[in-house]
Design brief:
- The complex is a heterodimer of chains A (295) and B (314).
- Chain A folds into 2 domains: 12-55; 59-294, MetI-like (MetI-like fold, Orthogonal Bundle), CATH 1.10.3720.
- Helices cover 73% and strands 1% of the residues of chain A.
- Chain A contains 11 helices and 1 strand.
- Chain A has helices spanning 14-52, 58-62, 75-106, 111-123, 128-142, 149-173, 177-185, 190-218, 222-226, 247-255, 261-294; one strand at residues 232-233.
- Chain A is globular and about 65 Å long.
- Chain B is α/β, with parallel strands linked by helices and 314 residues long.
- In chain B, helix 2 crosses helix 12 (269-288), helix 3 (70-79) packs parallel to helix 4 and helix 12 runs antiparallel to helix 13 (296-310).
- Chain B is elongated, with a radius of gyration of 22 Å.
- Classes of the chains: A mainly alpha (295), B alpha/beta (314).
- The A-B interface holds A 64-67, 146-147, 225, 228-235, 243, 253, 255-260 and B 2, 37, 39, 42, 45-46, 48-50, 52-53, 56, 63-69, 82, 195-198, 215, 217-218, 220-222, 288-290.
- Strand 1 (232-233) of chain A pairs antiparallel with strand 2 of chain B.
Amino acid sequence: MTAQHPAIGEGRSALDRKRRAKGAVFAVLCGAATAVGVLSLAVLLVDVVADGIGSLDADFMTSFASRFPERAGIKAALAGSVWILFLTASIAFPLSVAAAIYLEEYAGEGWISRAIQTNIANLAGVPSIVYGILGLAFFVRTLGFDRSVISGALTLSLLVMPVIIIASQEAIRAVPSTIREAAYGLGATRWQVVSRQILPMAMPGIMTGTILALSRAVGETAPLIMVGAVGFIAFTPDGLRDPFTVLPLQIYNWVSRPQDEFRALAAAGIIVLLALLLSMNAVAIVLRNRYRTRI
Amino acid sequence: MNERSSSGSSWLAALVLLMGCGGAEGGDSAMLSGSVQIDGSSTVFPIAEAVAEEFQAANRSVRVTVGVSGSGGGFERFCNGEIDITNASRPIRDSEIEECAAAGIQFTEVPVAWDGLSIIVNPQNDFLTCVTTDELRRIWAPDMRVSTWRDVRAGWPDEEIRLYGPGTDSGTFDYFTETIVGESGASRPDFQASEDDNILVQGVAGDRFALGYFGYAYYAENAGRLKLVEVDGGTGCVAPSDETIENGTYAPLARPLFFYVKHAALQRPEVRAYVEFMLREAPTLVPATGYHALSAAEYEEDLALIARVAGGGA
């Protein structure tokens, strides 16, 4: 750092001082902006933990929903969210990465790929309820999957795919072209270049995009209500065609009750949801680091 | 149309077993299996949840699910043949009856409880203890002639009246506008709307010149920070209470809550057992959810109605 700003001595010009002052102001502004985010998150966390920690015990994790707050638990919603998350990741991740590789490495520059590109960017901004309506019409009714875990996971896959595709494309584009050219120069085929050079280097970026997308999916309620997540269920899914509920829906359900005790349960549910998100992120970070060390 | 073949054969087995045990009770047999799919109004959901919870506990191998698609969403799924029972906080509309008829779905409407819509103001409001339905109509009418409390009744303060009510998608909004304003869905647009009644509670509790309406259960839980207003529907001022709602004097803001059951589904023993269980347990389960039970005689009528449309089976 200091090497880039060699001290010129006492004779600093007024212009130089002004320049440095601007830089300092900018740094303070950026710090303040970060503090706003961190502080509101901290306040939220403290508030939720204070409200919910009392209700969070083994019974809460292993009981089904109930009209009695002291008996109600989160088992069905947690199981449903884990099912949905796992299925959505298994469907959306390979499809999105493959699509990104195709668009970056195989597709030409023509108008078709530009049109696809524009559409994907637009789809990333479509409100989630629209995917719910699509899922209801196509997966639930046309394909006859009923209101089931698989319908929910397929709908959420559509929702997160544009985000993962765009993040993956960015990551693939960030791989220096010299590496591609060197590999081709040594006689590697396109498959070898993609699988041994580009994907390993792009994987950290792809993983980051996937984490963000799946975090969005696990907090979704509206599209899942459309494709049939239920309000009360006292069993966990055994298969792809079984009915289900998810954590955000159970939390909303408790928050909107007239009785105050249910709001403590909602806070406990939020802690469970946060824990699920954090453990999911932890898994992704471990995977990412393994990829990094292999390169 | 939604039933899978496996559930078809299992109900046959269950039916045989039921007959074998002489299942005159038509319910609580541990042999029941299959599934009962319910959806509909979020207003009725607490009742449905209470019934489902108890029924599920008594019948471990029946799979009961209760959705919250709203009254309208529930009817859509019901008339599409996707569910067995739908809950509603308003009667079925003509257009929905046509949809069901077009799909060949025969059903029966069953009243299950009363809900008293409550008119609520801030506890610091010392001038309003009783409001007439005509005044309510002028306050909520779409023409918006009323902007201050003095516009409603001479002698009230010259302060802006701030309104809180359920969102336009809710059956509560439909019922209130139809009963008070005279046309379903006709309401002034400049009110604070929320699908979450707790938001309305907070709004009225924090606003001295507010007026809002929502279900009685939300008033009862927050009675300390809200003030309940009596309503004069032409026969004097009446406050909502268990008694006035159940005996019909809290008119016109006491409304019936319903469920609708598909006749074809009633032929499945688990659905019939569920419906009969609900009607038998309602007198104890309904009050615990903050709603008001029908009279014992009315539940008997409901049960007789179910027996008629289900035909002889159990």
